């Protein structure tokens, strides 16, 4: 049976395939990939299993919401509630369920209720001694995005800064979540047409990504982040640094074991 990192990869595969289908504008195949993943996990672990709950909570509902399938997301959320009633939920799972409630309200454009759920989820997760870094990252990101949409850009950026510091202080297990927040912060700076600040966020993110295991999806896609950083260097007129990125990419393709 799978355990630890292998189990995480087993759950990620249908989601990653679905994302590829979305990039090809094939929603039907994407949804089918997620459904097959769900069935495979249920067949291996059972419907009322922690694994099924985790896949639904971390991947399935988010996938539906990201692709405007709100009704399907609501159905799976109700199924998830039923599963947790049987198997019980930890404090971080409960916090993430509240975050998902916020996501559903956000998808309905009910923003005031959404932020109430997000702040409630943050209050719960921030008081935990052992933080689930992925859940913490998701909650923080939702709050930052909300603040940005409400025109409170400084608040959004400050949320990213303080949350990244919190994660990094917890050491290497939190590096993936910290890197994702830094990338999102960098993308926010890009929207603000501030490539210089975006460079700083992307550089910090990549410094963390290179320290992640080779199987990590961020590490496997590091070329995409280097290319984004290269475009930011060019936007800033830092052409020698942009050229250095080409050298890194060529070295990575030739000697991937060095990274």
Summarize the structure.
Helix content is 80%, strand content 0%. The chain has 259 residues and is mainly alpha-helical.
Q: Helical segment tally? A: 13
Mean pLDDT: 91
Question: What coarse outline follows from CA principal-axis ratios?
Answer: globular
| Fraction of residues in H or I helices | over 70%
- The low-confidence runs, each spanning 5 or more residues with pLDDT under 50, are none
| Rg estimate, integer Å | 19 Å
Order of helices and strands: HHHHHHHHHHHHH
What report would you give on this structure?
This protein is mostly helical and 259 residues long. The protein is 80% helix and 0% strand. The protein contains 13 helices and no strands. It has helices at 4-23, 27-45, 50-66, 70-87, 91-107, 111-126, 133-149, 153-168, 175-191, 195-209, 217-220, 222-235, 239-254. The protein is globular and about 60 Å long. The model has no long low-confidence stretch (mean pLDDT 91).
List the keywords:
single chain; mainly alpha; 80% helix; globular; 259 residues
């Amino acid at each position: 049976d799978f355990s630890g990192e292998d189990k995480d990869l087993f759950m990620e595969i249908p989601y990653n395939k679905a994302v590829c289908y979305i990039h090809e504008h094939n929603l039907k195949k994407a949804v089918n990939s997620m459904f097959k993943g769900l069935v495979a996990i249920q067949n291996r672990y059972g419907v009322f299993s922690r694994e099924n709950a985790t896949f639904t909570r971390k991947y399935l509902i988010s996938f539906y919401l990201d692709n405007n399938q709100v009704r399907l997301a609501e159905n799976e959320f109700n199924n998830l509630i039923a599963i947790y009633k049987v198997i019980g939920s930890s404090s971080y799972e409960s916090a993430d369920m509240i975050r998902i409630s916020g996501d559903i309200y956000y998808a309905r454009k009910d923003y005031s209720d959404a932020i109430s759920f997000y702040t409630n989820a943050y209050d719960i997760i921030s008081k935990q001694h052992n933080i689930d870094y992925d859940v913490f990252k998701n909650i923080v990101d939702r709050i930052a995005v909300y603040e940005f949409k409400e025109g409170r850009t400084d608040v959004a950026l400050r949320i990213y800064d303080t949350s990244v510091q919190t994660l990094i202080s917890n050491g290497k297990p939190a590096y993936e979540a910290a890197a994702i927040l830094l990338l999102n912060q960098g993308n926010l700076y890009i929207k603000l047409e501030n490539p210089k600040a975006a460079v700083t966020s992307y550089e910090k993110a990549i410094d963390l990504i290179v320290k992640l295991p080779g199987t990590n999806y961020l590490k496997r896609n590091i070329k995409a982040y280097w290319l984004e950083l290269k475009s930011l260097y060019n936007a800033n007129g830092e052409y020698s640094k942009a050229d250095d990125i080409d050298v890194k990419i060529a070295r990575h393709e030739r000697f991937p074991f060095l990274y």
